[in-house]
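Anyone up for a design puzzle?
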């Protein structure tokens, strides 16, 4: 039993990256990466975020310390794995989700699964640079292959430029992007959920981002809704001033909700 528990702990630590543990924090902020992205960008938020928040970042299969693992085949597999790893961290705790681009969808469907199966829900869902799944993007058609989607997203600023450089690194990054886009396409083209969240939702987006119906996120919750547009393109949050604004807003929102509860 002890060896099995140890194996599960090691497995969970592979899925959830917490570089700066703060067990006395009032909130656990769980961050979900963009398509093709890893966990370290968000895990580093824990270094300078206020002590009221402990940051955890999701690490998907096929990247970083999980490079030798096969990519997930669909959103259900992604969510099931994340929920198993998160439950020991969030049960009995106040927690919130933040997702950027594809990470917004993973955060949303993880929240739905937690509510449906465990009657758990984040205090706040923060989404970034993504329309909600039910507001289908106009350029995304059912019969498009992932290569066509990747081309369109790159043309419209939805894929980072830094994977176009070193050929070996470029191919590795592109493979991860395509794997994630396969999951994303299925989610957007086949969204059927009657569950509605009750947590507050805040949206962030870049002023030069691809067209997105961010306002439609208010349809998936009975909670409060707010939206912010910050200077920049799809990856506006990589700009330090934007990152600082987001972290300060998240912290303030969570601290206010703690006082109100």
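Challenge accepted. My sequence:
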């Amino acid at each position: 039993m002890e060896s099995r528990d140890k194996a599960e702990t090691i497995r969970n630590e592979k899925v959830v990256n917490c570089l700066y543990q703060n067990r006395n924090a009032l909130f656990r902020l769980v961050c979900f990466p963009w398509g093709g992205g890893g966990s370290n960008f968000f895990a580093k938020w824990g270094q300078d975020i206020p002590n009221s928040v402990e940051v955890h970042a999701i690490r998907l299969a096929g990247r970083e310390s999980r490079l030798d693992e096969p990519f997930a085949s669909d959103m259900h597999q992604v969510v099931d794995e994340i929920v198993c790893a998160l439950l020991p961290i969030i049960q009995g705790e106040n927690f919130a989700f933040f997702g950027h681009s594809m990470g917004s969808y993973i955060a949303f469907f993880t929240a739905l699964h937690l509510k449906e199966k465990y009657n758990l829900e984040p205090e706040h869902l923060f989404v970034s640079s993504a329309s909600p799944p039910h507001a289908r993007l106009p350029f995304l058609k059912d019969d498009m292959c992932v290569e066509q989607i990747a081309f369109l997203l790159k043309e419209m600023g939805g894929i980072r430029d830094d994977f176009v450089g070193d050929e070996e690194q470029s191919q590795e990054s592109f493979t991860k992007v395509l794997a994630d886009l396969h999951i994303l396409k299925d989610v957007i083209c086949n969204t059927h959920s009657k569950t509605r969240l009750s947590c507050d939702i805040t949206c962030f987006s870049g002023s030069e981002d691809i067209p997105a119906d961010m306002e439609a996120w208010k349809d998936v919750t009975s909670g409060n809704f707010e939206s912010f547009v910050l200077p920049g393109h799809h990856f506006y949050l990589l700009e330090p001033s934007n990152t600082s604004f987001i972290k300060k807003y998240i912290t303030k929102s969570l601290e206010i909700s703690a006082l109100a509860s």
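A detail worth pointing out: The helical segments are 2-15, 40-43, 75-90, 102-118, 146-155, 167-189, 240-260.
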